[in-house]
Amino acid sequence: MTDTIAPVSCGLPEALTMPGSGLFIEGVILDGRTGAVFASSMDGGTIFRAPQGRSLFEVFQPAGANGCTSATGLRIDPENRRLIVCGGVTGLAFAYDADTGAPLGRYSNGLTTEPPKTMKPNADAPTFVNDVAIIAGDAYFTDSYDAALYRLTKASVDATVPYGEGVLERWLPFEGTVIAYRSDDTIPGRFNLNGIEAAPDGRYLVVVQTNTGKLFRIDVASRAVIEIVGEGNPGGDGLLLLSEFELLSVDMTKQPTLTRLRLADDYGSYEVVGRFDAPGNVSPTSAQVVGDRLLLTESQIWDVLIGGEPEHLPYRITVHPLAVLGRVGGSD
Q: Are 45 and 65 in contact (CB under 8 A)?
């Protein structure tokens, strides 16, 4: 059964909007300290911020600032007040001061030597730095095209001269693990690991493989990888940890677009507990909880950038009642 997520009512905004065209908004994240919401533009690299209570985003970092020409997943490091941003096909990651926007550095995985001809997901790119999770100040990045997990340590960012360039560490190559990359040179067929979340205690990373729907658990201390056993997750672009043992998988290519999963206590298995759709949202890629609301990016990537349908403006983050997903953190 598929449930429908209706837009919010009772005076709450139905969407947060941002100025501009051709943005293809990919990531969204809440700054828990200030209440601001950040969003990223895959084409151009603009970083937007909506201060708490505002429905209109403002430009936090303009397109191309410090070489950021594409921005996909992003995450706030709350203790160190850093905004970490993924650079898609550029093979880069970026660090900014989360309060002032000052660039702290950019970091390369070394797989590209020239600026990509297009920011669009494509079969020619050797890398797609896609999403990021943070544990104790260290950032872990999925690469949808290169079979490895990358890491940027807090110490590396501390040592970087502002506007300087550093290295993304190829922390965990997947050769010899249960994670097998594959490609049919189509989108999303070429997309492997994508969304990533960290367990609240920092012991595990959970990642989703878009083209198979498989979930994997990575032990941060030992780097051991297991497949999280289960059936029914159709794919996955973004992942959102709703509570300690509950995940929301967001996939712009599937109908319905949202799948709620319940993890076992050891993160070794999962069950599907609900499927949901958000009519009117074009190509959701990422989700974020703000209070009793669920925010979904309306990326337009699948429908417009890849599918060729007409772009519609303004770009927006749609807002929905979280309660539609059931009682988060408890039984349904």
A: yes
CATH superfamily of 2-325: TolB, C-terminal domain (2.120.10.30)
Q: What is the pLDDT of residue 8?
A: 39
CA 1 to chain centre: 26
Give percent above pLDDT 70 in the chain.
Answer: 95
Q: What is the pLDDT of residues 241-268, one digit of tens each?
A: 999 999 999 999 988 999 999 999 999 9
* Mean pLDDT, range 91-95, rounded to an integer: 97
Q: Is the pTM of this model over 0.85?
A: yes
For 239, the token pair is: 């992942």
CA dihedral angle for residue 117, residue 105, residue 30, residue 296, rounded to 10 degrees:
10
Nearest CA to 93 among 70, 125, 63? 70
Cα–Cα distance for residue pair 148/311, rounded to 1 Å: 34
How far is it, in rounded angstroms, from Cα 134 to Cα 268?
Answer: 21
Handedness of CA 121, 194, 27, 135 (dihedral sign): negative
pLDDT above 50 (res 212): yes
